[in-house]
Amino acid sequence: MNRHLQRPLPARLSLLACALAALAAQAQAQTAAQDAPAEKPPQTLQRVEIVGSSIKRITAEGPSAIAVYKRSDIEATGATSTVELLSKMAAVTAFDDGNNSNSFSAGATSASLRNMGAQNVLVLLNGRRLANYAFAAGTDTPFVDLNTIPLAAVERVEILRDGASALYGSDAVAGVMNFVTKTDYQGIELAGKLGQRTAGDQRRGEFSLTAGHGDFDRDGYNLLAMVAASRREPALAGKHSLTRSTDLRPYGGLDLRDTGRSPGSIQRIDEGYRKAHPACPAAQVEVDNIGDEYCRTDIAADARLGPTLERVNASLMGSKSLGGNTSLFGELVLGHNKTDWRGGYPTMESGVDHRVTPGMAAYVPALGRWVDDKGVVHENSPLQAYRSVDEAGERGTRSLVTSSRALAGVRGMAGNWDWEAAAMFSRSRGDQTEFNMLKRDAVLNALAKGGYNPFVPVNSRAAAEALLTDITKQATSTLNTLDAKVSNPELTRFLGGPLGMAAGVQFMHESMKEVADPQLAAKNIENWSGTSSDGSRKVASGFVEFNLQPNKATEIQLALRSDHYSDFGTTTNPKIAVAFRPNSDWLLRAGFNTAFKAPSLPQMHMGSTNAYPGEGIRDWIRCKPMGLDYNQCAYYPRLTYVPNEQLKPERSDIWSAGLAFNPSKALNTTVDLYYLKQKDSINLLDGQYLIDHEFDIPGYAELVTRDPRNPVLEQRYPGLKNGRLKYLTLPYMNVGGVETGGVDWTLRLEQQWAGIRFWLENEYNAILRYKSAFTPDGDLQDRVGGYSQEKWRNTLRVGGERGAWRVQLNGLTYAGVLNVSSPAVLQPGVDPGRMPSRTVWDLSVGYTGWKDLKLNLTVLNIFDIKPRFSTGYGGFYDDRYGPIIQLAARYTVR
User: Fold this and answer.
1) Residue 475 needs a FRET pair 20 to 30 A away by CA distance; which of 339, 405, 560, 567 works?
2) pTM
């Protein structure tokens, strides 16, 4: 084990301890029940609507697996944002915290269930959809930015761990996340939170003001307003021992120090080897195993390791009684998110058109002179420069995204019927600017005619600025809906028990438009590409849901929804789920449903996007006649990604089965199994698959562009009949599939002892199977167990409360993984090694001893558990920056 790692307590011991505690709590609960006095008659409980059903119910446990996190649970985690909260849940298998500066959607956050990606999770705010983030992730994946949901306004989070297209339509494949905000609040609440790393950097602050007026039951109205603002600064390289150098060789990795900083390195094309520039200090020159030299520069102490994040959210929610059990309601939610990332320098491309030859202004004759192994002097070799343009400062990314959501509706009761209708407008609009980008035409002009010389160690700032420009892309995503539904928890009696029913219709219009900067569209920016898209569609949907209770022990949920899309047609999805209660302690449940993911608007309507393969494409139709082996047969043609208006939706079949054991208020545990099979998954046509079947599958040959045939080569190599690969056109296609299955286990214990209320909560998620394929006839390959997809995660929360004090310890354990991205890339006979499991502990201490004031101190990663290092991943896999201390205060005026 690497000496920088600390091994956590084995996860199996944590699970065993939880099981033993459960048995002890059950015994104590039974004893207490025998000695306790007779209970008072139960109070009438109010029915509420919970995610996963449109029929109001009293109990949360039912035919589907649902997790509910209350406001007290949220505050005890110490989370400062919605995505940070979700990252502490075992059911959330992956998330994007917005720290990737190379992302097409820098600064935005998302989360995944079942390792199916954010695109397969439906995100709701108060039971309704939000517009997707203005910029798609990658080139084609829209998602809801969780930054648009301010954590300060969230009263509870509901997570449905099951498919739900039969109720909600597209995207509800791996599950549904519903964020429920405060309602019917009276008074004023001020809240603030300050924190930073113990090293003194990554400072963060949050402030919120909530004000509510009017008691709906007494006054007939309620108005609730909230504003929240937050700022988080980046970590600094020099503050942390593991980030002070990008030379990772001491940990078993590679030397990642920058090789482009001035003066960089050069290559004499005739000589073939790369050499450090003569002006490079000898201490910075390194030679690799094939003889190429590099001039390396380490990271600066003040280098920022993430973006500066600034967020402002405001909401206004109201309800007004019209009398007769009818009321108006409305929501207005606004957001302004700013992400500012600075770091790195623009680098010149190193293609053939960037070679400098004698006669060009940038040519340096002394650098073009070299001596071969026989002592022969060669003159005038063409030169290639490998360096960044760093005289004008760092490059950066600034993203400004505004979001808005306006909702107005009316709801009421007529007899035993609840009814509701609403109209919603939701939009996300973004401007993303890249600073200090190199203009290709200006670079080529400088090489040929002068101005900036890459072979000179330091140019003037003015010469560098002449090559640079800022580029901006703009995007807008909108979602407009009109919906209506009715529900009745007991429409009639059927098979001896109540029959509940809900039905509804929805009309939706969504659009997404992204406009690239003109210079980017003209391919005039060095080492950079972008996307554009322009598409819209209309959707008309209808659903019906039944809840049957033929006897006191059995509950059956039946649902059916049909969605008609203007661009690909109609899809209909059913659901059946059954819950059986043999007695008051046990619940058994099972279900089946189908779900779908509609093709995204970029997949159907985006502009073409260019890229190059990371791994060479083997063109055996040329390589075999030429006698080339696997390593020699590697081509890197330009790849052009294009949309496909003929795409079909991705379709999934989902099975589930589970049980819940709840013998008393002190003990509750659930175990749920799931299996999901997805077909017609949308992926880009694989470049290697295209070449392998170029002449076998009709239409594939038209997607391949080759150079003209070479008669000289064809005479030398009999059987060679095709030109060299030049371009490949790769459309999005329904060519993949996924099979996955796993188990979720939850446990909650609560006991009173010596005046202290104790609790223990555990959540465990294991992915027992995850296989996928990305080609039409490809075999499903195992993808779970590498660092891209862990096999399991576990969250343990242990706490106690007495009087005004509350203490909770949160432990999040990640499974040990193979030192590769997935088992599918394992090489026969090669042991990649493993990264051990890792447990991180957070401590939360709360105090409520002062009237109307609540204080909370949180220490994240209190034991300073070090990150794991992966040679396969190429660096530290976990957070490298150490503990965070946060102090929060909440003051209420009634």
Assistant:
1) 567
2) 0.86
